[in-house]
Amino acid sequence: MRMMESLEECLFRAFANTEYSDPQERSTMWAILEGLMRLKALDYSWHRVDARKNHECVRGCTIKAGSIYFHWALGAWNWNEETKLCARCMAMILYFKEIHLLPRCSYTHWDLKNKKPVDLTREDP
After folding, report:
1. Consecutive 10-residue runs of the chain (125 residues): their mean pLDDT?
2. Which of 110, 116, 121 is nearest to 13 (CA)?
3. Structural domain containing residue 74
4. CB 14 within 8 A of CB 26
């Protein structure tokens, strides 16, 4: 039985395995946020948002109320409807940008047993 999933695998599963994978699960959210941090885009442009109503992703996906989506805006003044991405599409974009090849920011893998991110490049003390 597999014990770990790489960042690349978490992102791929989120968009490629639509029948069995929920892009709202914690492993996908970790992978997306780690990917955005690796791109240095999380600080000012991409915002993680909890939907209070239904929205539409720029690629036409439905973003349901209560789900997490990602919104691009430069500051508080540039929020508009055209810059929303659902978690599935954000995972796909980060996967194809090959962010897993960039230096890690926090963690490298998702521990399937303990359901938390881990860094396999660090040695245990």
Report:
1. 89 87 92 91 76 94 95 67 87 95 93 94 64
2. 110
3. 4-118
4. no
- In terms of Cβ atoms closer than 10 Å to its own Cβ (0-12, 13-18, 19+), residue 14 is buried
How far apart, in whole angstroms, are the C-alpha atoms of residue 52 and residue 109? Answer: 31
**Alpha-carbon torsion, ordered 23, 29, 32, 35, to 10 deg:** -150
Residue 125 covered by a domain: no
Length reported for the chain: 125
The encoded tokens of residue 24 equal 């709202």
Question: For the chain, what is the domain count?
Answer: 1
Distance (Å) of CA 61 to CA 22, 29, 31, 74, 85: 14, 17, 20, 23, 8
Q: What is the value of pTM for the model shown?
A: 0.87
